[in-house]
Amino acid sequence: MKLFKIGNLFFILLFVTLSAHAEIVLQTFEKQTYQSILENENQQSFLLVLWSLDCPPCMDELSMLGGLHQQFPDKKIILVSTDSEAQSDEIMQIMNKFKLTGLPQWVFGNESPQYLRYSIDPLWYGELPRSYFHTAETRQAVSGKLKKADLIRWFNAG
Fold first, then answer.
1. What pLDDT is recorded for position 47?
2. Taking the domain 29-157, which CATH number applies?
3. In the 8-state DSSP scheme, what is residue 147?
4. What gap in Å lies between CA 38 and CA 70, rounded to an integer?
5. Would you list the domain boundaries of the chain?
6. Among candidates 94, 64, 59, 92, which has minimal Cα distance to 77?
7. CA 17 to chain centroid
8. In terms of pLDDT, which residue wins out, 24 or 135?
9. How confident is the model at residue 5 (pLDDT cuts 50, 70, 90)?
């Protein structure tokens, strides 16, 4: 009987783990992706966050965003990893760790990272983390780790 219960517990834990991974849809970010995102959001407010696995301030920011996403689940946050598609498993682990699995997820594709950065912002040279606050009228770029108070203010405003 104990073996049966342990076996059931194992399958339940496996199902929960796989379910958490199933929520993540990691899409390939290509040269036209940013324009497509703008068109799809149809003048709605959203936050675009660019990050990388090898960026410690990015990890701090993702941790903070995970908590804020729980607090403001209706606010649109789009995440773009500047890593390669070959690192998809690591990216998904980070998303699970910080409870960001339900958000739109992108990873840089095979094109030149410089070209992909330029497609987002010709004035961006690759510093991370990098975020863009989008509203119907404006786009504000921020290099460096976002401040929690600024995010809360922005989430409450829109």
1. 98
2. 3.40.30.10
3. P
4. 24
5. 29-157
6. 64
7. 20
8. 135
9. low
Q: Measured in whole angstroms, how far is the alpha carbon of residue 112 from the centre of its chain?
A: 20
Quick one: residue 122, left, alpha or beta (phi over 0 = left, psi -120 to 50 = alpha)? Answer: alpha
What does the block give as tokens for 25? 């849809």
Q: To the nearest whole number, what is the mean pLDDT of the chain? A: 89
- CB-based contact 148:156 (threshold 8 Å): no
pLDDT of residue 49: 98
CA atoms within 13 A on the CB side of 74: 4
Q: Which residues touch 77 (CB under 8 Å, ≥6 apart)?
A: 46, 47, 49, 65, 69, 100, 103, 104
Q: What does the pLDDT average to over 34-62?
A: 96
List phi, psi (to 5°) of 112: -55, 130
E-strand stretches of the chain: 26-29, 46-51, 77-81, 105-108, 130-134, 139-143
| pLDDT tops 90 at residue 7 | no
3-class DSSP state of 8: helix
